[in-house]
Amino acid sequence: MIFDLDGVLIDSEQVWDEVRQSFAAAHGGTWTPTATRDMQGMSTPEWAEYLVSAVGVRLPAAEVSAGVIAAMEKAYAAHLPVIPGAVDAVRAVASRFPVAIASSAPAVLIRVFLDVTGLPVPVAVSSEECAAGKPSPDVYLLAASRLGVSPASCYAVEDSTNGLKAALAAGMTVLAVPNPHFPPAAEVLAQVRVLGSVSELPDALA
């Protein structure tokens, strides 16, 4: 079982959005109507470059990523927005199957989540390690490889359009917990099994 992080285990998509918008405004950028959805699933280098090229932030991409990630760490230190039922769901699944996280979040933020929750997740992969972020399947394929299992034998849990596309492209069985703030595209949801919340996951696998 491979979990996405943002939007599945922590209610962080809005935090990312607020932090990026604030950072962009402070550094000469102009937010666009599609910016939020465009960046969902992008790796750190990809969204940093997007903020420069598409939003107009007047800093090098490396400074953009460092500044945004530092702001996210500060936000998480104040409050880590774990989704109700997520920790129990992961523990229940981990008692029966190997589990991993495959996330677009930078590795430092994945580690914050695991340190705070103490979850037994032996494999945690950031798309920073891959050639491309979601909707590319790279991060899911790498997570399956590190678990030592074939992608076709894996379940993936996702919340966003790009995340769902990535897991589908990896050849996994995909379960969706749609993000209420940024709902996935209907045509993508039609290709997967939809759950009402992550708490339903252990029963769905029974």
UniProtKB/TrEMBL annotation:
<dbReference type="Pfam" id="PF00702">
    <property type="entry name" value="Hydrolase"/>
</dbReference>
<dbReference type="InterPro" id="IPR023214">
    <property type="entry name" value="HAD_sf"/>
</dbReference>
<dbReference type="InterPro" id="IPR006439">
    <property type="entry name" value="HAD-SF_hydro_IA"/>
</dbReference>
<dbReference type="InterPro" id="IPR036412">
    <property type="entry name" value="HAD-like_sf"/>
</dbReference>
<dbReference type="InterPro" id="IPR023198">
    <property type="entry name" value="PGP-like_dom2"/>
</dbReference>
<protein>
    <submittedName>
        <fullName>Haloacid dehalogenase superfamily, subfamily IA, variant 3 with third motif having DD or ED</fullName>
    </submittedName>
</protein>
